Each structure stands twice: as structure tokens, then as C-alpha cells.
Amino acid sequence: MLKFPIYLDYSATTPVDPRVAQAMIPWLTEQFGNPASRSHAYGWEAEKAVEDAREQVAALVNADPKEIVWTSGATESNNLAIKGAAQFYKGKGKHIITLKTEHKAVLDTFRELERHGFEATYLDVQEDGLINMEAFRNALRPDTILVSVMFVNNEIGVIQPIAEIGEICREKGITFHVDAAQATGKVDIDLSQLKVDLMSFSAHKTYGPKGIGALYVRRKPRARLEAQMHGGGHERGLRSGTLATHQIVGMGEAFRIAREEMKIENDRVRKLRDRLLKGLQDIEATYVNGDMEHRVPHNLNISFAYVEGESLIMAIKDVAVSSGSACTSASLEPSYVLRALGRNDELAHSSIRFTIGRFTTEEEVDYTIDLLHKKIGKLRELSPLWEMVQEGVDLDSVQWAAH
Amino acid sequence: MAYSEKVLDHYENPRNVGGFAKEDEGVGTGMVGAPACGDVMKLQIKVGKDGVIEDAKFKTYGCGSAIASSSLVTEWVKGKTVEQALEIKNTQIAEELALPPVKIHCSILAEDAIKAAVADYKKKHVA
Ligand SMILES: Cc1ncc(COP(=O)(O)O)c(C=O)c1O
Ligand code: FES
């Protein structure tokens, strides 16, 4: 039995795995102590739970538990890492580098630093969504203090060459931050090998609860940063605030499950994604956005030419997906990520991001393929652009009466 | 975003989809919008010898509200003279479809499409 709408938006957020929810409950009602309470058993047991979870998170990325700092999510981790490192090293230089396709939590933090006197470079990406290593090397300056590059892009799922970038940054003594919110449970992350100084994580993209995340802060060689949240000195002074035991336990359990099951899960999810791709590629004039090889197994981002994004979303309301068009937000801005790939506005507008996950079934994928065939056919019958293309008109040669 | 029932109705069952031969004497064609803006509307009217619009057809590339707006105006212009058709205002369209403020531009586009179709028709008939 299919349940509607079919959820294919696992990169926006995931359901909490039932095992995770179970693990969290006692920490809300029974074992509710403050992990910072040193004088009684309520505090001690909470502290132990927090430390066990820290080990589980560290284990997924092959780090030392002492290198994990709890935060409220990847947005906060990105803020802490980028502002914290920039402020610590501002005496050394003021140049910082990132990509145009980063999440807003990175881009907006960079903008904020620019308002405080830092100079930022926002690198273009290649047509396939990957960083251009030569452009990156050329952008480095003697006063570059920080580089921030995401592990996995949230819209198109491409995996950036983190190891390679890390080598360069380490050699030049530049702090390297990686937003890995979309990477956990999807790609192998080995921080004993990767030359990454700071890495952001979020629980809710990996079947954990919302509102909890972590920042990896390397110990050897030590990554330095200034705290952004001041108070009781929790998390070795890097992030004050009473720890949310139940959330932390949830993140720990979610990351434990990810570590144990990711291989099997990714194989299954990849098969479903490839099935979806095959089914949709039958439709004329479709374009996959982003490299297919250096890509997480659960993401498919595809543009359907000559149909508009929002009407497409409306037509396929039986499936919950994300659109590359921000038409609904009144800004009429197509996705800045797709634009950075050099996609024209029209194709950016008509793109759909499908992200498959732990609870997706083959039946759901088949239903989605069938639905898209029908609805795209219908919308194209309605589309003056499709009609013109069928008549052999080159749309680029038309003088549009823009409004 | 939540759509009104009327928008959904026009969107699910668009009226008068299609087109007429552009060259026909009595046909006026209006094409407004641009692919880069996310909306293009093509509205055609077929005008009788008496100056009354006998039929109208549309095709729209755009959001649900844009599709509904153009579907609605094909119904509204029928039976009107071209001058009467020019009196249709975007506010009437927006009101009929209960469009939220962010969707007003879709109704403006529909009004513009009528104007463009009438202008094209008139151009053929000046001489
Ligand atoms: C790449 C990336 N970074 C950061 C975030 C923000 O994460 P959080 O919701 O945990 O603040 C997201 C989620 O939208 C993301 O996809
Ligand atoms: S066509 Fe984009 S909002 Fe109506």
C-alpha cells in the first residue's frame, strides 16, 4: 500500500529512525539529569550518555571523541567554525575562500565576515558541480587563513575532492573547514586520513532528531577557534549551554546505525536511484544536473525542459520533492546552485531534486516514474515553448516581451 | 503553497487549450512573458466579422496561477467585443481566482496577453 505523498526529499530532512526515537525517550522522562551536574547520579548517568554518544559520532568519522563539540545543528557548526577560525587567525590574514554552491549557512556567514573586514572569494564550480582545482590553487593568497568547502552538495549531491583540497591547505597552513551535513552515512569519512581541521555535522539528515549537530575540531595539529556562545564554559569553553541529553543520545544512535548499515543501505538506495534515473530518462529533453560519478547514491537532480518548476511540483503533489525554482517565495529566483553550474534560468526553474532514503520502496519509485511521464506530457501539451520547439523554433532567437 | 479551489480547478481541467493558425484573418495572437522569468503565455482570439470574439485558446508555461489565469480569460473573452475584452483587469482575475499577493503578477500577465492578442488582431485590420 502506498502512502501519499510519497516522501522523496530525504536531503531536506529524514524521519527519525524508530530505534533512535526509542533510545531518546528515557532521557526525556526518567533520566532527565543535567549532564553538568557533578553532585548526584542523575547528572552522572546523563554525562555518561553524552560521552557514549560522542564516541558513536566520532566512530562514524574515525575521529577522537575529544574532537567532537555538540551544537544545535550544522548551521551553528558552520557559524562556529567559520567565524571562530576567522576571528582567531585575523592577525595572520583576512582572506577566506569558499564555493558559490555552498549552503546558505556558509555563504551568509562569509558575507557577515566580509562586513567585518574580511575579504572573501566565492569560487565558481565546473559545469559538473565540482570545484576547479586549478582555480582554487590560483585563488590562494599569502594572507588566506580559511577555506570552507562542502563535502556533499545538498542540491545536486556531488562529492567534492576533500582529500585533495586538504593536502593543499595543510601544506600552506590554512585552516580547512568542511560542511559534511549531507555526507554522513552516505560517503566514507576518515578523519585520521583527511587533512581537515573542522567539520560540521547535523543529526536530522541521517535519521536523527532536528536541532542537534556537532563540530569536529582537530586536536593534532590543533585547530584553533574562538567561541561564539559564551556562558557556563561547556564543551571546553567552545560552546556554552546545557547539553540536550536526549537529542545527543539520538544523534549518537543515529550515527551508530549509519556506521553499521551504510554499506548495505547505500547499495539498496543506489539501485532505487538508478531505477528512477532510467525511468525518467525516457522522457524527452531531460537533463541531469551535476556529475553522476562523484555523487552520493541517493540524489537525483533533473531538469525537464519546457515545463515550469512550480506547476510541475503542483502536478506531482503526490510526491514530496524539492524544486530548483524559488518561484513560490516571490523572489522568482532560480536555484543559485544550478545557476553556478551554468544552467540557464529556464532549466534551473524546471529542475526537481529527488532524494531517496531508508524507507523508500521500489513501488514508490515506480509510481513516481509513471506519474512524471503522465504529468510532464500534460504540461508540455500546455506549454507554448514545447509547441515552438516542436515547430523547430530556436527559443534563444525569440525576442521575449519580458515583464 | 496553498492554492484556491478555483485555481486548482482550472489547473486540473484547463479550458480552451490549443491554438489557431496565426495567419488567419480573424485571429489575434498575444505572446507575453519570457522563459527566463518562468512564465510565457500565448493567448489567441478568433474574432468574427461583427468584432465579437467567437473563440479563444491558450497555452501557458508558468506556475499554477499563471495557467489558471490564462484559462480563465479564455472563458471571459468569449462573446465580448475586442474593446470589451480590453476592459478585463488583472484585479478581476486575481479576485476571481483568490490569488495571494505573490501571484498577482500572474494575473497581470494574463491581462497583458489579452492586450497583446487584441493589438495583433487590430494590426491586421488597420488598412
Ligand atoms: C549542506 C548543508 N549545510 C548545512 C545545513 C543546515 O543544517 P541544520 O539544519 O542542521 O542547521 C544543511 C541542511 O539544510 C545542509 O544541507
Ligand atoms: S509564473 Fe511564477 S509565480 Fe506565477
TrEMBL record, chain A:
<comment type="subunit">
    <text>Homodimer. Forms a heterotetramer with IscU, interacts with other sulfur acceptors.</text>
</comment>
<comment type="similarity">
    <text>Belongs to the class-V pyridoxal-phosphate-dependent aminotransferase family. NifS/IscS subfamily.</text>
</comment>
<dbReference type="InterPro" id="IPR015421">
    <property type="entry name" value="PyrdxlP-dep_Trfase_major"/>
</dbReference>
<feature type="domain" description="Aminotransferase class V">
    <location>
        <begin position="6"/>
        <end position="367"/>
    </location>
</feature>
<protein>
    <recommendedName>
        <fullName>Cysteine desulfurase IscS</fullName>
        <ecNumber>2.8.1.7</ecNumber>
    </recommendedName>
</protein>
<feature type="active site" description="Cysteine persulfide intermediate">
    <location>
        <position position="327"/>
    </location>
</feature>
<feature type="binding site">
    <location>
        <position position="242"/>
    </location>
    <ligand>
        <name>pyridoxal 5'-phosphate</name>
    </ligand>
</feature>
<dbReference type="Pfam" id="PF00266">
    <property type="entry name" value="Aminotran_5"/>
</dbReference>
<keyword id="KW-0408">Iron</keyword>
<dbReference type="InterPro" id="IPR000192">
    <property type="entry name" value="Aminotrans_V_dom"/>
</dbReference>
<feature type="modified residue" description="N6-(pyridoxal phosphate)lysine">
    <location>
        <position position="205"/>
    </location>
</feature>
<dbReference type="InterPro" id="IPR015424">
    <property type="entry name" value="PyrdxlP-dep_Trfase"/>
</dbReference>
<feature type="binding site" description="via persulfide group">
    <location>
        <position position="327"/>
    </location>
    <ligand>
        <name>[2Fe-2S] cluster</name>
    </ligand>
</feature>
<keyword id="KW-0479">Metal-binding</keyword>
<comment type="function">
    <text>Master enzyme that delivers sulfur to a number of partners involved in Fe-S cluster assembly, tRNA modification or cofactor biosynthesis. Catalyzes the removal of elemental sulfur atoms from cysteine to produce alanine. Functions as a sulfur delivery protein for Fe-S cluster synthesis onto IscU, an Fe-S scaffold assembly protein, as well as other S acceptor proteins.</text>
</comment>
<feature type="binding site">
    <location>
        <begin position="74"/>
        <end position="75"/>
    </location>
    <ligand>
        <name>pyridoxal 5'-phosphate</name>
    </ligand>
</feature>
<keyword id="KW-0808">Transferase</keyword>
<feature type="binding site">
    <location>
        <position position="182"/>
    </location>
    <ligand>
        <name>pyridoxal 5'-phosphate</name>
    </ligand>
</feature>
<comment type="pathway">
    <text>Cofactor biosynthesis; iron-sulfur cluster biosynthesis.</text>
</comment>
<dbReference type="GO" id="GO:0031071">
    <property type="term" value="F:cysteine desulfurase activity"/>
</dbReference>
<keyword id="KW-0411">Iron-sulfur</keyword>
<keyword id="KW-0001">2Fe-2S</keyword>
TrEMBL record, chain B:
<feature type="domain" description="NIF system FeS cluster assembly NifU N-terminal">
    <location>
        <begin position="2"/>
        <end position="125"/>
    </location>
</feature>
<dbReference type="InterPro" id="IPR011339">
    <property type="entry name" value="ISCU"/>
</dbReference>
<comment type="function">
    <text>A scaffold on which IscS assembles Fe-S clusters. It is likely that Fe-S cluster coordination is flexible as the role of this complex is to build and then hand off Fe-S clusters.</text>
</comment>
<comment type="similarity">
    <text>Belongs to the NifU family.</text>
</comment>
<protein>
    <recommendedName>
        <fullName>Iron-sulfur cluster assembly scaffold protein IscU</fullName>
    </recommendedName>
</protein>
<dbReference type="InterPro" id="IPR002871">
    <property type="entry name" value="NIF_FeS_clus_asmbl_NifU_N"/>
</dbReference>
<dbReference type="Pfam" id="PF01592">
    <property type="entry name" value="NifU_N"/>
</dbReference>
